[in-house]
Amino acid sequence: MSAPIHIQPGETFTLNVGPQHPATHGVLRVKLEMDGEYIVHAETVLGYIHRMHELMGENRTYPQVLPNLSRLDYLGALGYTHGHVLAVERASGIEVPERAEYIRAITVEMNRIASHLFWFGAFVMDLGGFTPLMYAIQDREYILDILERVTGSRLTYCYYRFGGLYNDIDDEFIPATKAFIPRMRESLKKYDALVTGNIILQKRLKDIGPLSKELCRKYGATGPVARGSGIDFDVRKNEPYSVYPEFDFDIPVYHECDSFARYKVRMDEMEQSLRIIEQGLEKLPDGPIMPAKKPKLIKPPAGDYYQAVETARGSFGIRIVSDGGKNAYRFKLRSPTYSNMHLFDEACEGMLIMDALALMGSLDLVIPEIDR
Amino acid sequence: MIKDTIKKALQELFPVPEPVVAETPPTEAAEGEETKAKKTVKEGPRVNGVIERDYNACGYHLDAQVDPGELLAAVLILDKAGFFIESITGVDWIKEDQLEVIYDFSRYDFDLCRVVIRTRTPRTAPKVPTISKIFSGANWHERETHDFFGIKFEGHPHLIPLLLPEDADFHPLLKDFKP
Question: Which of A313, B5, B114, B172 is the most buried (most CB within 10 A)?
Fold first, then answer.
């Protein structure tokens, strides 16, 4: 009890981060082999909230799986449901009216901003600054209120249907969104002044947690993690889907490969999302939100279909293997944070533990989405 | 175009290129013929080889089926060409008594080309060589596939359950799995 512990030179000890740890934002466990404050070896242990969505996708009909997708990532759920409906529409050849696609793009971008805002707050909180979280959550609340009016829920949306949407936007959606855009722009300036230039933040992030281009490629990292490492990859641009080719927006890419680059990518992405929303509202066509001709029973012809979309966290892919029945024969979900988290084990070796936790925060983890 | 170079490189893996040539024309044929041709491809047992797929219909460009022994050679071609690994998954074809392992690859640049590599292994003793030595990111994907289908990835450094409990001895995505 009272005997002091002396670690011999070269001796290491094991440190468990998680499964219940505030820095992991969910039930994730990282087994760290430590040499003093330095990480010698890391092993991530997953599966604490594994729910087997892929099996649920096999033993339910296609429409019955719709609500499952938003349970993957509770911060940016619309991106995932978007991928699902696009995959099934591709498989069964359903045409989507233009108005529905525009509303989808607008709501997905709103959700992306909400997700990045929450990440921003939580990330800065990881680094020791509590106040920005409160500002971020306040801004996010405006988005959730707007989305709640049209989708009916605040986090686990089930708004998209095969062929279109559950319901059209109401009269208040457009004015509320239009009022939100300038307010958000002001907030982004505020965050920039309050956080980005902060010397403590810069010291904690600059040149910390380097992820090389090659490391990203070997692990299949996508989204802001790849873009912070100088990889100009965004599914919306590289593999255009939905109505994204109609919009004029940029993909922020930073070449520094450090945690600060990933921070900057997400901050810049919010501005780009605002641009997309602005253009979407301007161009929003009139018309139906569901196609006139739609099969009553969704039964894609036998085959193997793949659809990738860009969610707030990276490239989310859905593979549907159909045998011509009403259920999918195989329903594979490729989650972006799964690949992004995987590189953590290799990247954090030799780092100080507090830097490694900053790196983990910059990966923007959502655990239910890794475990599925 | 990267698609053509990869297609050529993959085709060299297969000594008999005739079935490949027979299956490629449908992409340029008339629509009615195309669906017919596709059906015949689906009905017959799939032979090893590269097929160029209609991207709009199925979401990828090249679809290659190889033997487990040729897998590493095929993956090395993609690694050298700068592809990144998207995912690995399995499909249980219980009627044919086979398990299929599907590898997805994509590119970071604007020369869009999605490549799918498939390989089949008997259901009774499913064995596939690991590609985690080429793509480190395959490590977790292979462990997950081992969890769900019981496919053994030979040479994998750490093939223990990832998403399932650490003492799990069941494979939930097999079609004859009873909870």
Answer: A313
Q: Do A342 and B139 touch (CB under 8 A)?
A: yes
User: Which token pair is A98?
Assistant: 């233009």
CATH of residue A113: 1.10.645.10
Domain that holds residue A114: 64-337
- Rounded mean pLDDT, A264-288: 90
Q: Would an 8 Å CB–CB cutoff place B52 in contact with chain A?
A: no
Residue A298 lies in a domain: yes
In a domain, residue A350? The reply is no
> Residue B41 has what pLDDT?
44
* Minimal Cβ distance to B112: which of A87, A239, A334: A239
How far, rounded to the nearest angstrom, does the alpha carbon of residue B139 sit from its chain's CA centroid? 16
If we measure between CA atoms, which residue out of A165, A179, A155 comes closest to residue A75? A155
Q: Where are the beta strands (DSSP E) in chain B?
A: 49-52, 62-66, 84-93, 98-106, 115-122, 127-129, 152-154
d(CA B130, CA A316): 24
pLDDT at A141: 92
pTM of the complete model? 0.85
pLDDT digits 0-9 by tens, A3-15 = 776 767 777 888 8
Identity of the residue in B60, B63, B172 whose CB atom sits nearest the CB atom of A55: B172
Q: Are residues A187 and A134 in contact, defined by beta-carbon separation less than 8 angstroms?
A: no
Cα–Cα distance list, B74 to A193, B85, B105, B137 (Å): 51, 13, 11, 17
Locus of tokens 């959550």: A137
Select the residue of B42, B58, B112 nearest A306 (Cβ to Cβ): B58
> How many domains are contained in chain A?
1
Is residue A100 assigned to a domain? yes
Closest residue by Cα to residue A228 from A246, A207, A249, A204: A207
Alpha-carbon dihedral of residues B73, B76, B78, B81, nearest 10 degrees? Answer: -130
Two tokens, residue B53: 């797929």
**What's the rounded Cα separation, in Å, for the pair A194 and A77?**
29
ipTM of this predicted structure: 0.85
Bond from prior residue into A19 cis (ω within 30 degrees of 0): yes
